[in-house]
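Need Dynein regulation protein LC7's 3D structure for a figure. Predict it.
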Amino acid sequence: MIQQRANFDWMLKELADGVPHTRQVVVLSADGLRIARFGGEPDAADRLAAACAGLQSLASAVAAEIPDSDGRMRMVIIEVSGGYFYLMAAGAGAFLAVLADETVDAGLMSNRMRDLVVRIGAHLTSPPRRDGQAV
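Structure prediction for Dynein regulation protein LC7:
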């Protein structure tokens, strides 16, 4: 079960504060619903969460084509003009997404995201939903 959003705020802030040039941190469910966020506007976090649902699905489809892969997406990094986007699996049915400026230390971000997921990954889970309700 997902912990209350307020319980995640300080952990997401810690990630953002620990990696200079972080713009927004979002925890989302596999179906694209925002669970928690730090930084940025709430509407932007909701749009990012929705986009991530499609991206993690695409990444899993690509992973399925790699021999000896279990077909599950672990991390996606996209570099765009002006910054980076990170998406990492963060527990059963949950993901951690980050938007950062182009001056971010990409290696540091990846490592800090991994550390956060290891520390709290068991709490970053989202049960499957049917008709908008958790099952």
